[in-house]
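ok so I'm stuck.
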Amino acid sequence: MDFKRNWLSWIYLLFAILGAVLPTLANIDFVLTYGPGFDIQKFIALANENSASQSLSRDLFIGAGSITIWIIFESRRLKMKNLWIVILGIFTIAFAFGAPLFLFLRERRLLELDNE
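replied:
not stuck anymore, here's the structure
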């Protein structure tokens, strides 16, 4: 087993965990502040309230869109399993969770292929 690749995969998993926890905490704070439910229109309005938030929102939209397309094609190329978990995670938890989770699963798949 490639030590560096194995170690790298666990770093990606750590980022996936942080990518799930930190946005979720912010979303909980949003609901507590603007609740009682998750008001998507308010969320989008706040995400575009000023130039700085617009820049971050647009950057995330373009980056996440292009990486999501790559995730789909790369997972098919490598014949990866459980892609649905990554896609579901991207759209229900956060892109910051789904992308590192995919990288973790990809590294594990590459290790598997190296050992065949």
